[in-house]
Here is the input.
Amino acid sequence: MTPVFLVLNSGSSSLKFEVFDAKGNGEPRRIRRGQFELDSKPRFKATNPEGEVIAQSRLCDGAGHQQALDHLLSWLREHDDAFSLAGVGHRVVHGGQNYCEPVKVDEPTLAALERLVPLAPLHQPHNLEPIRILDRQYPRLVQIACFDTAFHHRQPQLARLFALPRSMSESGIRRYGFHGLSYAFLASVFGRYDELIAKGRVVAAHLGNGASLCAIENGASVATTMGFSALDGLPMGTRCGSLDPAVVLYLMRETKLSVDEVEGLLYTQSGLLGVSGISNDMRELRAQASSQPSAQLAIDLFVYRICRELGSLIAALGGIDALVFTAGIGENDAATRAEVLRGSAWAGFELDPSANEKGGPKITRGSGPSAWVIPTDEELMIARAMRRMIGEVG
Ligand code: ADP
Here is the structure.
């Protein structure tokens, strides 16, 4: 039997998983990954570390997280190497004001995390559902929750406050920040690339379907573009990013949209999709940009907003030593990186076009601040937390 750490990232209509070899006491090693799509055709797929598909199947119509977990656990047990669970780690979007580190989940903790659902109603319930299901079925299984908010917990007070009455801030209406597992991973590997990034003033750009920037100094978050929710900051695949709050009031008062309709508009019909009217997918927009002006406009707005927010974070840091690109767009779209660096030339960035086309890691030259492409690994961050909390596995 191979003892494994199972890492789950559960959304409303998907369940992503990664399996890490937990044996020993060192860095957990990824051995499988896969996902369940829980839409109108529920299905399962798993790959090995080389990316080869090693299992796929259809689940019965209407299958949800319960059926997906049943399928996954029996697949792990019956697998050639007969995996045994040493623990399950969960990506949980919101840790609220109190959870600033990974935590072993027991009943009171789960109840406390459920009380945070109103702060992230579109994500938190889906993140917690597998914890609840596994807790019912396997009460002795070690489950660990890792939070997207945690990395930002020690930001200075000024970076967290809204200019609302203090009583509101004290009740939890404040900036939290997200993508923290991604930023914590990057901060943990900066030293492998350059000592100056590890110690210096860095802006990390997590540009995926969700997108944000984070100002990091000496490995710690000092400011970030996402705030109370994961809706704030940059425009994203389908989310609008920063918006004058009066727009929401106008939509509700004048156009009589309901709360749910406004929520749907801002989270699922805006961003790259809303501006282009074509797609939320950067590859698709790049492919159509020369023939469809609205695709080019969506890309231009994305880049313009990144450059403006970058300027604001450089101000928060009092200067910049390095900019780091990560996630789907940041790691793969050389054109976005080039446009951001050209738009931020005022800060001293000098693009190295051929290094950028090759994907880095370093994509600038000259004596100004550097820019880098560093792949993120949020699941490894969770597996590392499991190793710390569970210790050596025999
Ligand atoms: P998520 O936030 O869902 O994890 P990802 O980090 O996978 O998202 O990023 C998805 C985005 O990355 C999409 O806009 C997709 O088009 C973009 N992307 C992925 N691969 C490429 C590529 N080769 N070139 C340009 N964009 C890419």
